[in-house]
Design a protein that fits this description.
The chain is mainly α. It has two domains: about 70 residues, Orthogonal Bundle (Arc Repressor Mutant, subunit A), CATH 1.10.10.10; about 30 residues. Helices cover about 55% and strands about 10% of the residues. The protein contains six helices and three strands; from the N terminus they run ααβααββαα. The protein has a three-stranded antiparallel sheet. α1 packs antiparallel against α4 and α1 crosses α5. The longest helix has 29 residues.
Length: about 120
């Protein structure tokens, strides 16, 4: 099966790294210059910039030059796509589990009789 990177695949890949998740958490508080964003990570700016590139390439963040600084911000649309996908999966699995529960609760499966002659206890 050939591998195709969809925007959603790229977003989940980007979020698989703890440094990038921390960047996203910080940007949830608002826009910030790259230099300020990089401070708590204790890595060289070029290394940190690679993390930002992954986040920007998949559309989770955007950056723009303002004077001598580059500022980063979150792009909500990509997060909305990921949340929509997760919600659809949650609904699908909830429905499947509900059907399984209904099937397993059938009287003939738990040893009780349908005609009411049984006492509701397993055979």
């Amino acid at each position: 099966m050939p591998y195709h990177s969809t925007p959603l695949d790229l977003a989940f890949h980007a979020l698989s790294d703890p440094t990038r998740r921390a960047v996203v958490s910080r940007l949830a508080e608002g826009e910030v210059p790259v230099s300020v964003l990089a401070e708590p990570f204790g890595m060289a700016l070029p290394s940190f910039a690679q993390h930002l590139k992954v986040l920007e390439d998949c559309g989770l963040i955007a950056s723009e030059k303002r004077g001598r600084s580059r500022w980063c911000r979150l792009v909500e649309a990509r997060f909305d796509e990921a949340a929509d996908w997760m919600e659809a999966e949650r609904r699908r699995w909830t429905a499947r589990l509900d059907r399984l529960e209904a099937y397993l609760d059938r009287p003939e499966l738990n040893g009780t009789e349908k005609d009411g002659e049984g006492h509701g206890e397993p055979v």
